[in-house]
Amino acid sequence: MAWCKKNINERWDKRFTTHIKEEHDDGVLVLKTRFNQVWNWFSATELGNTVTEYWQQWYERAAEGNYSNDPSRPYPEYRDEEPHDLKDVAADLFARVKPSTARLRSGGNDPSPEGKDVFVPDLGKIGILGRRWIVSRKRTTNLFDLANAWKKAVFQQLNEDIADNK
Questions:
Q1: pLDDT tens across the length of the chain (166 residues)
Q2: Minimal CA–CA distance to 122: which of 63, 75, 70?
Q3: Which of 13, 104, 139, 158 has an alpha carbon 20 to 30 Å from 72's alpha carbon atom?
Q4: How far apart are CA 117 and CA 36, in angstroms?
Q5: What whole-number distance in Å separates Cα of residue 103 and Cα of residue 97?
Q6: Quick check: helix, strand or coil at residue 64?
């Protein structure tokens, strides 16, 4: 009884305090998915570490112009002709990457005009590289959900019929 009285008093005292909720946690990247049993044996943290480590290595290699086409661990060259939706990224959130040194030596086509450096969005500055990854599982619809929806619709109609008869 004392616990209940203490918490009721605490809630009463805090009823007018303003709670500012952050829209999202900057330290977490959420992978949204449908519920699947495979997620029980899958580590989103491990996936996040693998992906972000690769991205970090790509930025380090791209800053030097050291790209690789190795099939086991490719580090492809940035190509600006790829379609993307990054038109309104702030200028200070870009990283400078160099064109491939092999292309410059062979005189091939460069991703940038005249072999100049290219600016790409920097995931480290944007804040994606340092985030923790978690999985948000959305449960799929099953027969029980359909039966509950049907039951709710029947009771709603029954209530409307009773209200109309009065």
A1: 677 877 888 888 887 777 666 655 567 878 777 777 777 787 888 888 888 888 889 888 888 888 888 888 888 887 766 666 666 778 788 888 888 765 545 445 544 445 677 788 888 888 888 788 887 777 767 788 888 889 999 999 999 888 888 7
A2: 63
A3: 104
A4: 44
A5: 14
A6: helix
- CA separation (Å) from 81 to 10, 60, 125, 164? 59, 22, 23, 64
Cα 10 to its chain centre, rounded Å, is 37
The reported pLDDT for the residue numbered 1 is 67
Secondary-structure breakdown of the chain: helix, strand, coil percentages, each rounded to the nearest 5: 45, 15, 40
Please provide the distance, in angstroms rounded to a whole number, between the alpha carbons at the two ends of the chain.
45
Rounded to whole angstroms, how far apart are CA atoms 33 and 104?
43
Contact between 111 and 99 under an 8 Å Cβ cutoff? The reply is yes
Give the residue among 28, 78, 43, 40 at the shortest CA–CA distance from 58. 78
Token representation of residue 112: 């940038």
Contact criterion met (CB below 8 Å) for 28 and 132:
yes
What pLDDT is recorded for position 155? 92
